[in-house]
Amino acid sequence: LELIGEGGMGLVYLAEQQEPVRRNVALKIVKLGMDTKQVIARFEAERQTLAVLDHPNIAHVFDAGTTRAGRPYFVMEYVEGVSITKYCDEQKLNIEERLELFKQVCEGVHHAHQKGIIHRDIKPSNILVSNHGDKALPKIIDFGIAKAITQSLTEETFFTREGQLLGTPEYMSPEQVDLATQDIDTRSDIYSLGVLLYVLLAGVLPFDRESLEKAGFAELQRTIREDEPPLPSTRLTSLGDKAKAIAESRRTQIITLTRRLHRELEWIPMKAMRKDRTRRYRSASELADDIQNYLTGTPLIAGPESAVYRARKFVRKHAGSVATAALVAVVIILGLVVSIVMGCRAEQAREKEAAARKQVEQALVRAEKAEKLAKERAEEYRRSLYLNRIILSDISYRDGNMRRVRELLEACPEDLRGWEWDRLNHISSDESCMTLSGHSDLVFRLAVSPDGKRIASGSFKGEFRP
């Protein structure tokens, strides 16, 4: 009826099947001039692939054969729909509705994987969505570069030509873009599903398509193999005015959409897109289960990459720089250790010196206190001696022993002499009072000369003193 699609090796027509059921079908036929052994083998492989798959989310094969000109063809289910991303945006499906649709895609891919088939080209244009009543039904199409894991799809040799990149680069896994290896398994499709989910949520590819197209093939390979894609929330906020249209097509606001992505929803595509395939979801079914976990509020299988894993990956990527930095770090650490040890020793020496200084200061304080106490006691003794001398002087004065009074008073320190000393000194210095001595016995008689200038005394022993 009309040409509705064209691929690298075949043309797809809308046709009408008459028997056994009259219906519109998609007729895929090898292009003229493309009927080489390799193309025919790949074409036959796609037909065999679709023939073994039976799932509501995968387009069915109804018939196959060869034209009169020898060009192989096969008849498959005609999906009257649009790509999944276009459908979601045109219908303005919210996040939950997009996730429900995506979950069906995961179930279809999981069915193919169970049959031992890897799609290898999962992208929006290979997932068509049409309405069946009030329900949207996604269908996976175009298994043209699918790879069998457990069985031979055709007796013809089917291979990827050396240096030929099969698939769409923006949706390719790191192992698929590496032409040096053919070690592709179902986890490659998990990666592509992660990119698809990223686009459904954030409205944009993880890596800018124009940048990838402008970059050389080697740079494209390096980007996909080594560069970590930005988080969907981060990518969305960097789009400026375009982000507003993306949010509106999801019936929400930019801030609300960014917040929802940032909380935990973006962990799901980021886990599916991990460079290390052993850290992706183990199957498309597990990915679908995690989508259901999010929808029901159950804890996710996914989570942000651990700091240990990121550090290990950084070390592998920058081994030379890390080794140099590690060597510098070791030198710095050794220097710090030596400095700390020397510092500790110096601190200990300072503490010992401070302790010795403190001991000396304490000894000096004790000596000063002892000296002060000695001086105080010496002063007390000196004052006591002074007081005793004053007392003895007073007694000697009463006894009339003026000479002794004078001796005692003269012995008194000048700085201690007070009124008591002055009194005794005054009365003992009066010339009208004299002490006469010289007798060894009691004096019983005195005689004074007529002029009053001389005196004579006599004792009981008969002593006479003029």
UniProtKB/TrEMBL annotation:
Keywords carried by this UniProt record: ATP-binding, Coiled coil, Kinase, Membrane, Nucleotide-binding, Transferase, Transmembrane, Transmembrane helix
Classification via PROSITE patterns: PROTEIN_KINASE_ATP, PROTEIN_KINASE_DOM, PROTEIN_KINASE_ST, WD_REPEATS_2, WD_REPEATS_REGION
Recorded coiled-coil stretches: 346-384
SUPFAM superfamilies tied to this protein: Protein kinase-like (PK-like)
Domain Protein kinase: residue ranges: 1-295
Nucleotide-binding as UniProt keyword: yes
GO MF entry, a single one: ATP binding
Residue intervals passing through the bilayer: 319-342
Alphabetical list of PANTHER family matching this protein: MITOGEN-ACTIVATED PROTEIN KINASE KINASE KINASE 20-RELATED, SERINE_THREONINE-PROTEIN KINASE NEKL-3
Protein name stated in the entry: Protein kinase domain-containing protein
